[in-house]
Every structure is written in structure tokens, then in C-alpha cells.
Amino acid sequence: MDTAKGILVDTYLDWTKAEGLPTYEDFCVDMMKVETAPWPRLDARGAFVHLNGRGDFISIFVMEIPPGASTSPQAHLYEEVFYVLSGHGTAVVEMPSGREHSFEWGPRSLFAFPLNARYRLFNGSGREPARFASTNNLAMMLNTFRNESFIFDNSARFGEREGGEGYFSGEGAMLNNMRNRSLWETNLVPDLASFELDKWSSRGAGSSNMVFSLAEGTLHAHCSEMPPGTYKKGHRHGSDFHVCIVDGHGYSLFWYEGEADFRRYDWQEGCVFAPPDMVYHQHFNTSPKSARYLATAWGSTRFPFSQEKRLVKLGVDISSKLPGGRQIEYEDQDPRIHQMYLAAIAQHGGACRMDEFLANGVLKG
Q1: Which is the CATH superfamily of the domain at 11-161?
Q2: Model pTM?
Q3: 173-363 belongs to which CATH class?
Q4: What is the pLDDT of residues 95-130, one digit of tens each?
């Protein structure tokens, strides 16, 4: 990449163009339907997903391994979090200490490798392709160093990121977080749809949540769940939070402070969207079962990276009426929001359960 001349250079976007893969730029993208193309770098197939609210630090690669095939060995000086959209297979990773681990993955598996560890992914099916979403911070790294060789041909090893002995077998450690929230430290979550979450009622009606610390990295990941017939509270934060739907269907509303109207986006399993900088957004479950989503972002709870990220984590469930608060309480939300939900869930034949949490639009208890 020759970026020595010119102005307003974006080294990452120049790199994606040189890779020759399809690029999807939209507010919400269904990653199950993204068309991929051969990606010689991986000996697999791929596409780039550049969401409108992705910000400056991270983006998503959609990666697909053909039946019975595998990626070429990979190692790089950027972090990534893998989420399996479809398929089954195995991964082999060489740890910084020289030890080798292998583990199985399947639909809705979540995993990450230590920074710059050498790894390879194998599709275990001879008939069906396997598809992944990789949230990664290559954009930040390339735009910082502007040197492809430094990113992809670097011998540095990070032994402090190996994690515990059983972290690639689904074991982990529960760490104390903040305000009664929990953080699960691991390298692998075998099935994000069945992982037990902790109640987090301050974020909404019957809401539950778990924050993950993956491979001692600075990429954030958390999983949230909404029971059937419920919706979460509106909130806002900076850009780059990528929300991937794990299970269920529903919609989200988006609006900037002072706007008269809402923008609505419907979603189902495999969709991903990224709320733009400081836009209020609110998530609604219209499915007959609980809806789960995975949110990834730059700046983990253990290693938040910036003051803005620290403030987000401290204020995400605090009323916007209070200093540092980022959340709209039910009693303060626009009355149209609840009426819109009643109409939406009726279209799906479901029953609203918000009366368990609301009394004339005001949160009970």
C-alpha cells in the first residue's frame, strides 16, 4: 500500500479495496445473506461489513470456509472476536508459550485468540460451508501504523494473554464487575444462546446480561436477553457498538435528542447494526421466545482504553436526568413508544408482558 502521497488517507479502506472483496455499507446488514468472494489471504471466502455507525476503531469481516476446507494459518497484530453464524468445525491455535490447543465450535459459538497467536480454522462438514463474523480492530491498527507488514508479519508474542488452563474448553472465571454485574473471563463460549446470563433489571423489563473478557483483549463483548413480550430501556453512547442478533426477532428504534420522529429497523438472527454516535436507541422483542443479542465494541470492561468508554460503562444504566447518565427510564420515555410496541407485537400474535413492569407507563417497584 502506497499512502505516502495524498491527503485524507484512510489506510484501512485502501487495504480493503486492494483485498478485492465485496463491501457492504448500510445501517443494518443480514450477515446470513452477505455474498462472499474468494479471499486468497485466508484460503477461504470473505466480505467486509462497514456499518454506518461503526466509528473509527472496529469493523466486521464475514468469513466463509467451503465444505471440507480450512483457512491457511493466520497470525496478526490486531484483535478479533469470532462469532459462528453457521456450521461446525475445529480450531487449532499455537499459544505464545508454544503449546497448541484445539477445540470444537458450532453455531453461536463465541471465541477469541491471544493477540498475534497463530491459528487455523477447519470446517468439519463435507457438505455445508461454515460462516463466521469477525469483529476486529484492524481499521485502527492499519490507520495507526500504516504498515501492512508490521500487522501481518510480526514475531511479537503476548504470553500474558494466554488465559487459564481450560479457557479453550469453555471453562472460565467469574470476575467481580460493577454494580452487581458479572464478567466471565474465558477464550471460548461454546453456545452463546444457552449461556446462563445474570439478571440486570435496571436495563429493562426482566433483562439479563453477561459481559465477557476474551483472550485478555481490549475488544468488548456482552450478551443481553429480553424475555418475550418485553423491551429494553432507551439509551445512548458513542459509535462502534456492533449489535448482532443471536436468537429471536424484533426491532429497534433510533432517534437523536430533539428529533420528532423515530427510525425503525427490524431484525432477526444473523442481523448486525451499529448505533451511530450518541443516537438514542431502544430494542424490542416481538418473538414468542426470549431474544438475545451479542454486542461487540472497542474498549473492554477490563481494559476500556479511553475515558469515554469508562463513562459509558459507568452510565449505561443510569437515568439521563442524572450526571453521567445515558438511559431513558420507562416513566420518561415518549408515550408513543409503548403504543408502537403494542401494535408491533400484536402483528406477530404475541402478548405484551410490560404490564408486569409498567403501571400507566411508569416502572413498578
Answers
A1: Jelly Rolls (2.60.120.10)
A2: 0.94
A3: mainly beta
A4: 888 889 999 999 999 999 999 999 999 999 999 999
